[in-house]
Amino acid sequence: MILSLLILPLLAGIAQASPEELEQNLAYRSPYVSHPALGIDTRQVYKRHLEASAEVRSDLKKRQEQTDIPSGEDSEYPQPGYGLGVTDWSNSNYIYAGDLNFTHSVASGDPYDYSVILWTRAYPASTYRVDIPQCEVQRWSLTGADVDWTVKVEATGLSASTLYSYQFENCAKPDNKSPIGKTRTAPGKMATDVPTQRFAIYSCSNYPNGFFSAYSGPVVHEDADYVVHLGDYIYESGTGGAAIGRVPSKGAELASLDDYRRRYDEHRTDVDLLSMHQNIPIIAIWDDHETANNDWKAGSSDSNDSISTGGCAYSNGTVCFSDRAMHAKRAYFEWLPIRQVDLGDQARIWRDFRFGDLLDIYALDTRKYDRDITDLSYNTDYVATLAQDLDSSRSMVGPQQEKWIEDGLKASQDRGTVWKLIWNQVILGSQTPDQATFTINYDAWDGYQGNRQRLLQHIYDQSIDNVAVFTGDTHATWLFENNIQATLQGSDDITTLAASEATTYDHQRGTVVEFGGTAVSSSGWGNSWGSYENSTVAAKRMVENNPTLLYSKGYHRGYMTVSVNYTHLETYWYSYPGNQQARVPNNRTLAMRATMEAGMNHVQRPLMTPTFGAIKPGF
Ligand SMILES: *[C@@H]1O[C@H](CO)[C@@H](O)[C@H](O)[C@H]1NC(C)=O
Ligand SMILES: *[C@@H]1O[C@H](CO)[C@@H](O)[C@H](O)[C@H]1NC(C)=O
Ligand SMILES: *[C@@H]1O[C@H](CO)[C@@H](O)[C@H](O)[C@H]1NC(C)=O
Ligand SMILES: *[C@@H]1O[C@H](CO)[C@@H](O)[C@H](O)[C@H]1NC(C)=O
Ligand SMILES: *[C@@H]1O[C@H](CO)[C@@H](O)[C@H](O)[C@H]1NC(C)=O
Ligand SMILES: *[C@@H]1O[C@H](CO)[C@@H](O)[C@H](O)[C@H]1NC(C)=O
């Protein structure tokens, strides 16, 4: 049911927008007050406009003195800088009356019960590049080259649990409109009769690796209200793609702001991704590849700030990790309809959402916020030693975020909110070493076992029920029942508690069910086995060797959906056979389904016989 259409007119031309007016387009603002370098200096932009204004006035004066007004130019840019001080925007002599090209359609995200973030990109369809004021109902603000022509506004005053349409329009040329987008607000924070909430959950969309057919799922089947992206929305490497005509335009690792912007631009040409954004609001968190492989708070596997060791002499020139990370974050905030969690904090994206008393969402940043050193290939032995020290203060999320998630889960439980959903980047479950199949991934929670123990201990001690974690990163599919006894002894020494639960169906105190999703298109461990049969042999070994792992699947790319009501949480894993080497938007296959019943803290037995992949014997 579409209740109303929000019209967000875009106005073209240069105007003397004050710094405050500029900042109505959130893309200008730094997401963090203490990090001005992540934003655009709007006072400088204002100054530039004042200078332009003076030039235009003198130019106008000259033109008024001419008897022959030059003809044929009005539909384009009659003169640079018109619109200055003009309040009647219909006067096309004073504003840019050319077309705007909505090059990347529209998108929306971070739904609250009263507001949602709306996004578009408005590029002047002319060779003349100016700043483009955008007026939104009573207000307007600019976009321009400073923010890569992105427009990001918060639409507020909305009704809860409501489907909305929205459209941006060129004020100067009202028939020049963006595509119509659809979005939705969250249920009221205090609502007690929340209908079933449905999420489509993605991770790891690598443009040269394959087509993004999986994004078409919720659009074609109309079975998700929100989309979630758990990270690796773009990839920073410059290789591959020749076989399918998706070669990255920059054939090198990304480093500059322009590099990262153009990479979003490129990923966002995929038609299924565009259509998903146009139709469904997203809640996104980043993982490593939005910046660089295996990044942590002070480096990545191929860059750091250490000039003496060559860490800065990275890619093209001498780009240090910190600069690279800042460019990456800036471009992410410009291109994704994510809220700016303005706490004066260091690059914080971890945030929560309340959907009445049905569910709370905790969206983590296990990657860039405050992560201690990770496995960077050249330091694996060192990190392995740190990883298994359960008493260490070593942290995956940093102390501030750790307190937030622990307090948040406890508050959810105390309020009586039924489900606690955690959006998480890297695998929480313990993946038992079996060198032939899978080596320990110290870049996942297995590399931060003390931190993992503190989190699971808290959930156990406080008897927090109905916690479900959704994880990306691995390009493969996993179903874990993580519990303090079986997971937290260090991955070299886990007990077989989970196996003993096979025949019982009791409430499990403190067990956290983890649903790991495969990639949209990235290849990796999952399909490194050469064939579906061989990958399933590996998956079988994994479920047999890992006490807490109930299901594993490797070969196919795809996504998961989760459907949540007051009594059940049901997750579906979908596969797109063919591994995205062609666009196959209608070829979704259900690989597996698993259901949690509220209050039980584990998934229902017996498990379904999967279409693809392997389940633990006896389950
Ligand atoms: C509008 O943008 C699209 C996508 O970038 C491009 O293919 C098209 O040529 C542009 N049209 C105009 C008139 O600039
Ligand atoms: C920085 O990176 C270089 C090469 O990638 C590596 O040899 C060096 O140990 C790193 N420095 C730090 C402090 O991690
Ligand atoms: C390095 O930067 C220069 C100047 O911007 C550019 O021409 C060149 O293609 C870049 N090289 C690589 C490997 O990215
Ligand atoms: C599957 O595994 C077998 C046994 O290891 C191996 O001989 C075969 O080459 C593999 N198949 C593919 C397609 O990689
Ligand atoms: C809740 O979800 C479960 C599993 O999908 C379903 O069987 C049940 O009918 C749903 N309950 C309601 C009230 O819709
Ligand atoms: C579509 O899915 C079917 C069944 O899962 C599979 O056999 C087929 O290869 C897929 N088609 C394409 C074009 O990927």
UniProtKB/TrEMBL annotation:
Q: Which residues form the signal peptide?
A: 1-17
Where is composition skewed (Basic and acidic residues) in this entry?
Answer: 57-66
Q: Which InterPro entries match?
A: Metallo-depent_PP-like, PhoD-like_MPP, PhoD-like_sf, PhoD_N, Phospholipid_Metab_Enz
Which parts of this chain are annotated as the region Disordered?
57-82
One Pfam family name is PhoD
What keywords are assigned to this protein? Signal
**Record SUPFAM superfamilies:** Metallo-dependent phosphatases (SSF56300)
Looking at the record, the residues that make up the Phospholipase D N-terminal domain are: 104-185
| Residues covered by the PhoD-like phosphatase metallophosphatase domain | 199-571
Classification via PANTHER family: PHOSPHATASE, PUTATIVE (AFU_ORTHOLOGUE AFUA_6G08710)-RELATED (PTHR43606)
Identify this protein by name.
Answer: Alkaline phosphatase
